[in-house]
Write the structure tokens for this entry.
Amino acid sequence: MKLEGDRVTLGVTGGIAAYKAAELVRLMVKADLRVRIIMTPNATRFVAPLTFQTLSLSQVRVDTFEPVSPDRVEHVALAQETDLLVVAPATANILAKMARGIADDLLSTFYLAYGGVTLVAPAMNTQMYLHPATQENLEILRKRGVVVLDPQEGELACGDYGPGRFPDPPYILERVVDLLYEKDLHGKTFLVTAGPTREYLDAVRFISNPSSGRMGFALAQEARRRGAKVYLVSGPTHLTPPWGVEYVPVTSAQEMFQRVLDLYSGADVVIKAAAVADFRPVPLVEDGAKFKKEGRRRLVVELEANPDILATLGEEKGHQLLVGFAAESRDLLENAQAKLARKNLDMIVANEITAGFASDTNRVVIVRRDGSIRHLPLMSKEAVAEVIIDEVAALLQAGKAR
Ligand code: CTP
């Protein structure tokens, strides 16, 4: 990730959700963030500082008057070393102190000394959350530019049902990443396709392929993190759409074709990572019912060609930058270069079918229209997405898309 070295100070306050903050720390460290932790004294009654120390590999601060080092004024020094403050979980008490400028423990003192980008994830009993005092404090913080996450609705530890639950740590991480990423694609609109398509024979049976959708989802997420407006048109997958993208679920290739055409004129960049079925069955029954086998020993299914979505986009290309994928079982480069030319693309990302299909990793070759070729090693699909979006950003920068 592009976050290596970004410095986050995580404030953990005294609510039952404090234990969920441990998972958040783990995810932050995995994302290459440098995490420092301040716990309020009450938070240490829920989770031992050692838990956070072990996960963050740094000393947890609790006491304002117990300096980590004698030559540092801790809250001031730490403030200068922080790119983002995250308070998660944030109790009603810390929100009130932050809103009104009360500094009576290390975290609230730090908040005043810091004054930089801040995100809070309130988590508490529903009545406490909905109380006008808490809502007013949140409003003050929002007006001050603090990013306030909505708590989830659901059953709470106290037995109540309503808003107040700690948001899922992966979601909080995504909001953190969003605040730290450079927005070099701001103002650009991306249209990304992902996943397989399903081509139904009757009401319940279909032809498809094992595409997981992960490559396309990773591309959509990366473009969005970098500030682009992103439409993600995807066939059926098990993935949760990345935060902040416009998700357009589709089923068949024809449906994908239609949605993509609708969005094409407004897009600056189109990346077609979907594994589109080239053929669809002529329906076995006319009225969308379930086909009856009625003692047959053999069944012939006739297939008819689906539209080639990318080729159509290539024919109708205006200002858009077009990126295709090529899944090949042999002659990778030759086939990819031929597809790039045939579909009028600016770039094609080629992989052996054995390397990328239904897997978390991929080994790709990026071929540009100008003939340049870049071989990448086996990488996670998220890492591949970063490189592809870098390449796209470089083409946009070079004025490829007018
Ligand atoms: N594609 C598309 N519509 C189709 C088939 C493919 O938009 N009906 C797009 C894919 O999303 C991908 C690119 O075209 O970006 C190449 O897909 P691929 O399956 O590798 O190649 P095909 O063009 O289908 O050719 P072949 O199956 O013969 O290799």
Observations:
- Residues 189-397 form a domain with the Rossmann fold fold (CATH 3.40.50.10300).
